[in-house]
Amino acid sequence: MPASYAYLGPEGTFTEVALRTLPETATRELVPYVSVQSALDAVRTGEAEAAFVPIENSVEGGITTTLDELVAGQPLMIYREVLLSITFALLVRPGTKLSDIKTVTAHPAAQPQVRNWLKAHLPDAAWESAASNADGARLVQEGRYDAAFAGEFAAGPYGLEVLESDIHDAENAQTRFVLVGRPARPAAPTGADKTSVVLWQRDDHPGGLRDLLGEFATRGINLMLLQSRPTGAGIGNYCFCIDAEGHISDRRVADALMGLKRSCLQVRYLGSYPRAEVTPADVDPLRPGTSDEEFVAAADWVARCQDGRF
Ligand SMILES: O=C(O)C(=O)Cc1ccccc1
C-alpha cells in the first residue's frame, strides 16, 4: 500500500486542488478527512505519512484551527507550502434560481472573501459554516442548504450547478497550504526558504514583543507572518506564530533562534521549507554582516580573542 497523505476533504476542496500540484502525490494515496484536526491527528497516530491543510489566506490572515493545532498538542513539522489563487462559485441544486436562495454555506475562511458579494446579491440569505467548502457543496446536494460557495470544480462531484462564478471580494486572493509531518530533519536549504516558529514570552513587560522581534531584526531577517494566538491561560495571554525568511541551517536564523530560546519561556520549531513560487533569484540580498561567512568569521575572531590570538 502506498504511503498516504491526509487532506481536508471531502473530494473537491481547494485543499485537494492545491495538494495535487505537488509532484509526489502521484505516488501517494490521498485520503480526505472531515477536519483539519482529524487530518493532523492521522499524522500524529502514524495513520498518514503527512497531512495537507490550509494555514493562511491573503484576505483574513491565519486559519486559526490549523495554527492552534500546530501550536499545541504533539509537535508536528511543516515540510512544504503551496499557494493557490482562490475565486468562488455559487453552487446550487439544478434549477435553483438566485431568488430561491435562503441559506448559504461554506468554510468560515470563505466568508470574508464573499461578504460584499453576498451583501449585494443575497442580503437576506442566512450563513451557516461548513467543515470545508466541498463539505458545503455536499450539504447542498443533501438539501440541507440552498447554495454553497466552493470551487467551480466541486459542482460535478456533488451534482450541482454553477449559478455564479468568479466570486471574489478581493482581487488576487490567495490561500497558503502546508504539508505537515512528524518531526524529522528539515529538507536541505534551497536558497529561498522560510522558517516557522511559535514563541511564548517568559513574562509580560513593556516592549516584550519588540524584544522578540528584535532577535530577527538585528540579524537582518525579514518576517512573513506574525499572528498572535491566545494561550488559553486568560485574557491577554498570547503566543506568537512567526514565519521568518531563511532556513535553520543559515547562521543568522540559527543565531536568532538561539537568542529566542534563551529569552522565551518556550520556542516551538515548526520547520524550515522552500517558499512557494519564490526562487533564490527573487530573494532580497542579505543585509550587511548577516551572511554565513560573516557569522563564522565573527565566531573565529571571538575564539581568537579568548585565546589571546587577535
Ligand atoms: O479547501 C477548502 O475548500 C477549504 O474549505 C479550506 C479553504 C477555505 C477558504 C479558502 C480556501 C480554502
TrEMBL record:
Domain ACT as annotated: residue spans: 197-274
Pathway the protein contributes to: Amino-acid biosynthesis; L-phenylalanine biosynthesis; phenylpyruvate from prephenate: step 1/1
Record-listed E.C. numbers: 4.2.1.51
Positions of the record's site feature: Essential for prephenate dehydratase activity: T175
InterPro entries the UniProt entry points to: ACT-like_dom_sf (IPR045865), ACT_dom (IPR002912), Chor_mutase/pphenate_deHydtase (IPR008242), Preph_deHydtase (IPR001086), Preph_deHydtase_CS (IPR018528)
MF annotations from Gene Ontology: prephenate dehydratase activity
Keyword Lyase: yes
Keywords: Amino-acid biosynthesis, Aromatic amino acid biosynthesis, Lyase, Phenylalanine biosynthesis
Reaction equations catalysed: prephenate + H(+) = 3-phenylpyruvate + CO2 + H2O
Domain Prephenate dehydratase per the UniProt entry, residue ranges: 4-182
GO biological process, one term: L-phenylalanine biosynthetic process
Enzyme class: lyase
GO cellular-component term (any): cytoplasm
Subunit details: Homodimer.
Record-given protein name: Prephenate dehydratase
Protein's organism: Streptomyces rochei
Gene symbol of the encoding locus: pheA
